[in-house]
Amino acid sequence: MKTLIIYYSLEGNTKFVSLEFAKIVGANTLELVPKKPIKARGFSKYIWGGKQVVTNELPKLEPYSFNQSDYQQIVIASPIWASHFAPAIATFLSENKINGKIALIATNEGGSCKKAFHKVKEKLPNCEIIPTLNLLSPLRNQEETIEKLKIFSEKLK
Ligand SMILES: Cc1cc2nc3c(=O)[nH]c(=O)nc-3n(C[C@H](O)[C@H](O)[C@H](O)COP(=O)(O)O)c2cc1C
Asked: Does this model's pTM top 0.85?
């Protein structure tokens, strides 16, 4: 089944997950890159990013190419920001009406991703959402992450 992994990553965790998962399932990847680079470092990045989430900001993205009809299955991967998928994902979903089979992957540093999955599912009314996977600090747990991705890949067949 031809699969595309669409992802956003600020600090590399979701990128690592997306590229490893692409190797496992033989998928293509599409990285979403906001036009305005992040200005904040350290703790202030939480304020900066949290504000974007709370105000439902849709950051403009660098041009990308996406043709839904090329794929039978889509995977969306994002870090959790203030209990939501990152705003770049919201921008992408506002610009594209996705349908068909979708799987969701979140990376975070703890806590539940239930609300984030629920919120993003609301933005995908025409999709059959298959599985969801939450991965804790993937760059610090690389071997464990790859094992989890291998198990998860079985659900996409
Ligand atoms: C603005 C911002 C908000 C965040 N909010 C949460 C959160 O609500 N819960 C959580 O567990 N981690 C939160 N994190 C941590 C990230 O979800 C986590 O480090 C993630 O794996 C980073 O992925 P990336 O390296 O692909 O950017 C937040 C990080 C940022 C920058």
From this structure: yes
